[in-house]
Amino acid sequence: MADTALETDSRPASRYAGRRVPRVEDNRLLTGHGTFVDDVTRPGMLHACFVRSPFARAKVNKIDATAALAHPGVIAVLTAEDINPDVLEAWHAVAGKDVPDTPRPPLAEAEVKFVGDPVAIVIAEDRYVAEDALELVDVDYEPMPPVADFTKAVQAATEHGHIVHEQYPDNQAGGMAGMPPDEELFAGAAHVAQAHIYQQSYVPVPMETRGLVVEWQAAPGELTVWASTQAPHELRAFAARLLGLPAQNVRVIMRDTGGGFGQKVVPMREDMCILLAARKVPGPLKWIEDRRENLMTAGQARHVDGKVRLAFDDDGAILAGDIDFVQDIGAYPTPYPVLTTAAIGMFFPGPYRVPKCSFNYQTVFSNTAGLAAYRGPWQYETLSREILLDIAARQMDMDPVELRRRNILRGDEMPYFNPNGMPYDHVAPADTFEQAVKILDHEGFRKEQREALEQGRYIGLGFSAYIEPTGAATGHLGTEGATIRMESTGKINVYVNGGSTGNSLETTVVQLTADALGADIEDVSTIQGDTAVTPYGAGTQGSRSGPMTAGAVEEAGTILRKQVTAIAASILGVEAGEIELANSKAVVAGDDSKSVSFADIAYRAYYDPAQLPPGTSALLEATARFASPPTAMIHWANATHACTCEVDVVTGHVTLTRYIVSEDVGPMINPNVVEGQVAGGTVQGIGGALLEHQAYDADGNPLSSTFVDYLLPTATEVPSIEFGHVEIPGPGVGGYKGCGEGGAIGSPPAVINAINDALAPLGVTITKMPATPATIVAAIEEAAQNTGSEGQ
């Protein structure tokens, strides 16, 4: 952003940013008038369903679609032979076309690699016919031994020759290592804590599953896509590359999307299939994923097995950290898993003073659903570090609060480079930590805990602190566009890329635009998610929408303010520098009696431009593209979570009693939206800590493909979330930072630490997720047996 432009332009006073403005989309959504992909109907529309493998690994000898094609209403059955050769380019902008990636064919070729792997597409006149015809497609499978346990994937390859992809004969997609651990330091440290921490696979579970409607018009060579997506412009670019079409011939329309959480950032294999198939059938093609498909095939997340260590001096100061882990990436991970997994190692030092830190990791294939993005994909670094800090505190007979207090970074230490080179700035993790401790009343809880234990009740307290990069301002993520137009009525429309999936960009962008132009918020509306009319943007990912959209609106608003001011000055007969914009009017500074409404300014520009002075533009529209400067590419947010719980040591049931989040995402555009984002992520993390598990048996069969088996948290499991806010402005426009991922990052270790604190008198430490009642009871029984053995 050009600083000189801002210095010479008088920006209206902020009226709406920072206020709890009601969400503009709520009336539409809460009254059932939203438009989701399944609401889209096109003339002559056909429906697609996938034939999916019942085996985790098998050769596909033959596919016989004769009976299915004979079924009334079936239009086509397409296999890999029909559509895979049509792929021209299938790279994703998240890393670009030149970074080596893992295999990703649209339909399975010769071999299926997980249960649910799509092998054919049945296309019919309606969904019911397509579903019925699935059963008539005869696939000759030859089962093969699967690689179901990722922790044994390398062993399966070397000892038994069981591999997922021929290109990777050791089942390793790749890995990375930082500086090697300083073993001499660990050996000589006063205290060393170490743990083996396993995080299960669990998934985003958006309310709306994945889906597309694709309409191909052969005569003009145009493709229109209605999609449930977080990134409409990237879907458009991907479709153009995939099919070899000019980008201007592809239009993506995203209306309402019922949740994404990372799962809908990049097009997956089924999306590729529908895009390719749409050009082969005589009508628009719709695919809506059912819930079973979503749980089985839309990707896995988390699923890490690792060993972590921390070394401390006599006073409890951290001397060094080390993390060595393996991440399961399934059969067909979304793009570039080797690079994205590196974030776990890079961020492991967290918001603490850590002089030395080493990491080493491998990503391995398995015959399960592929790794996909999910709110803070590097979350294991916080989980493992924060659990280990509590373990270390107990070893040193120190309260976990005191241990963190001795090591957490303060604002006066910024800028601070963590030992892996990550440049922290514009943050004060100690501030959010101390605020959470104060809200909780730490000393009061410890007194209550002692009294409860005397009564035979086990209550516990867990903390978790983290720091995360938001803004994601690298590569194609480092730029965002906005168009602001004052219509002929004086009302204002702001056009942005969109990607709003429940994160209320519709509301926040209206607030920002109203402030940028001095308009009444009732006079501002937004148009998003249609690539035909909105500027390019990378969409909702990487907690980038707040800071990047704010930058784009400010750039465009600065230009449009000058245009509005020039026309108002000509009408009022004063210099442009004397004009102030407020309340949807232009007013002469110091003289409220001299004003002109936005409606009158627009009338002059649209209907009577001849009355404008020579050289005054009648244009009331501005488009700008914001690019993060190098000094503002990362907006570091941070938070501390605090959780209290009671554990029933007979049943293993965990009751969460209080939950506190103190967070710093800079100034809040809308506190309601921020707290909604944090609360939503927190609940997802609570589910991951206690309930959710995308489990497989030894043969690679999914065991949790319905909501009977895949358990989600409800309002009965989650206490009211208490919020504290620390507002340290970031380096970008408005000082805004992202807030989309933090809740999901911080909550699992806070919950696990609370459970471990409650069970500490019994000698129990849970380090394998999820902490189900069965897991807790088994751990209590094992601890009792060990104690009994030691007593003997």
Automatic annotation (TrEMBL):
Look up the EC number in the record and give it: 1.2.99.2
Cofactors named for this entry: Mo-molybdopterin cytosine dinucleotide
> Could you name the domain of life of the organism this protein comes from?
Bacteria
Gene3D superfamilies in UniProt: Aldehyde oxidase/xanthine dehydrogenase, a/b hammerhead, Aldehyde oxidase/xanthine dehydrogenase, molybdopterin binding domain
Please give the InterPro entries that the UniProt record associates with this protein: Ald_Oxase/Xan_DH_a/b, Ald_Oxase/Xan_DH_a/b_sf, Ald_Oxase/xanthine_DH-like, AldOxase/xan_DH_MoCoBD1, AldOxase/xan_DH_MoCoBD2, AldOxase/xan_DH_Mopterin-bd_sf
Which Pfam families does this entry report, sorted A to Z?
Ald_Xan_dh_C, MoCoBD_1, MoCoBD_2
Q: Which GO terms describe its molecular function?
A: iron ion binding; oxidoreductase activity
Please report the stretch or stretches of sequence annotated as the Aldehyde oxidase/xanthine dehydrogenase a/b hammerhead domain.
31-145
Give the EC class as a word.
oxidoreductase
Keywords annotated in UniProt: Molybdenum, Oxidoreductase
Name of protein: Aerobic-type carbon monoxide dehydrogenase, large subunit CoxL/CutL-like protein
**Source organism of this protein record:** Mycolicibacterium chitae
Show the taxonomic lineage: Bacteria, Bacillati, Actinomycetota, Actinomycetes, Mycobacteriales
Name the gene that codes for it. cutL_1
